[in-house]
Amino acid sequence: MQRINSQFLILLILILILLLGLSSCGEEKNPTVPVVVVTHAVFTPTVTPQPLTPLPTLVFATPTLIPISSPTPFPTPTYRPTSTPETKPLPTPPPFTIAKPDQLANSIAAWLNKQPDALPSKDPAIAKNRLRDLLLNWNAIGLNSAVEAADLDGDGQPELVATVAESWSEVPTIQRDAGFLLLLKGNKNQWSASFLRSRTLKLDAEEDFLHPQLEKIIDLTGDKLPDIVFSELICGSNTCILRLHAVSWNNGKFTDLTPDVPSMPTAQLSIEQNPVVGTLPALILIGGTINSPSAGLQRTRSEYWRWDAASKSVKLAETRFATSFFLYHRVLDGNAALDKGDLNQAIDLYYGSLTDSTLKLWFVESQGTSEDAIQEREVLTAFARFRLGIAYGLKGDLERAKTVMEEASLKDGNYAGWAKAFNIAVSSGKFPSTTAAIAEGCATAINYSQQNRSLIEAMNRFGSANPVFKPENICPKL
């Protein structure tokens, strides 16, 4: 619309200009041109609006919709389960006859030999698991009991090892927990059985092991062949005692590696996995307390049992006691250091027994009488002072040894007789060596102790779980 109006306006202006031009052309020429004053007028054209041409109506054809055919659905797949190979049922287990270990062991071997996939030439784990399931079904082992497969004799063939109890229970009972050690020897296509009873190891032992349990297959001797470690648990009314056995298997027979039979009340077994370079793994018994009031003052300990090449057996190599703040235990620790020949440590412990005021008295802590507590302090300090003098003498410091013994003669009241007897013997003559002088002094002190037994027996009032002191124990073994 705006464009049409503009064109019309321009056309009108052009017509006006043309008319003015024609008008000027028809006038008579006059030489005298008058001055004409032209006044510019603003021309405002009158625009008559023209009717607008209506826009054409657009007519769209209605499209014809052609329906799209629905896709043909995929057919639902038919589930076809993967075929599982048929497994043959296991042979019927043999009857459980614990009263005849040889018969039971042979029947177990025969049962496994009927299973082609459980033969020694196959994966030994299969036979091991079958044996474990069988023993569990018989209730001959516990859920945490081990069944192991290992080459014990180095012939490249596996052996299966387990313990078999008459009736396993987590709370052992002597009547029904007896059993034996079972070993199945692998020989390519068959298993052959062997077994071990308690009386086989020791003629004076019980006929069977009590509550036997396989603990570990490990090389204890350093011969690159694994050994068998298993335990017994013997329980009384208050306390259970853990007893260890270690055996090797070679040339078709068992060899006892623990003739000393490590044992400990209320104990747990730990096996040293990473021993110091140059040493063999140790069997560690941890515990030692007895659940009885008569046991008296106690503390836990750790015993390290290690292979001893000289005796060709597992021996007690070391005992470590838990830290204690009782005067009695401090004196015992001094005794242990002196017995080992660690004179400096013995001196420190005995000296600490005399000077450490924080050390506790058993009869005070257990609410004993004041007389008991006084006697406890007197006998322990007298014993520690006497041993301190001996430790100084063995170290070669005779002056200090003499000073300590003289002090004991003056300070230790009824117990001073030990030191007095020692001093008399040592001062009465000349000796070829310090050790000879100490030996003579100890012999005299022991004689005095035998004549006055009540003095040393005061060291035996701390309960049945502790060492028993005799007159000869006033001095260490020289």
**Overall mean confidence score, pLDDT:** 86
Give a count of the beta strands, DSSP E runs of length 2 or more: 14
Number of H- or I-type helical stretches: 12
> How far apart lie the N and C ends?
136 Å
H/E topology pattern: HHHEEEEHEEEEEEEEEEHHHHHHHH
| Uncertain spans | 25-49
Largest sheet, in brief, is:
5 strands, antiparallel
Structural class: alpha+beta
Q: Calculate Rg over CA atoms.
A: 54 Å
Describe the global form.
Answer: flat
Region (Disordered): 71-92
Protein name: Tetratricopeptide repeat protein
Features of the shown structure:
478 residues; alpha+beta; five-stranded antiparallel β-sheet; 12 helices; 14 strands; flat; Tetratricopeptide repeat protein; Integrin_alpha_N
3D structure, described in words:
This is Tetratricopeptide repeat protein. It comes from Candidatus Chlorohelix allophototropha. InterPro entries: Integrin_alpha_N. This protein is α+β, with helices and mostly antiparallel strands and 478 residues long. The protein is 33% helix and 18% strand. The protein contains twelve helices and 14 strands. Strands 1, 2, 3, 4 and 5 form a five-stranded antiparallel beta sheet that branches. Strands 6, 7, 8, 9 and 10 form a five-stranded antiparallel beta sheet that branches. A four-stranded antiparallel beta sheet has the order 11-12-13-14, with no helix packed on it. α6 (343-355) packs antiparallel against α8 (370-395). The longest helix is centred in the C-terminal third of the chain and has 26 residues, at 370-395. The relative contact order is 0.05. Residues 25-49 have low confidence and may be disordered.
